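Bug #77: duplicate submission created two jobs. Keeping one. Sequence:
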Amino acid sequence: MQQEKRYSDMTEHELRQEIAALQEKARKAEQMGMVNEFAVLERKVLMARAYLLNPDSFKPGEIYEIEGDPGQHFKIDYMNGVFAWGYRLKGDGKEEALPISLLKRLK
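Kept job's structure:
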């Protein structure tokens, strides 16, 4: 059995190939009405995309829009790898971690 490579160990090229493969699987799952499978694959795409970004370009104290959730904003308290830890501005104040691929710079 082949051990799958971790996203953190993949090259940019490998990550892009992985994202394309996951998107294709997600498309098929969606067509077949496999909602849970589709959701899992979409999450994997988000995670792989996070590894294509530079965590240093996301700064604690800054506020970002949450991709796919218009009007929702996220304030970063600290970074841990490709995860931004903080809270949603209109949320319940609970700390959560989001992959940086979900954060969009405010214009």
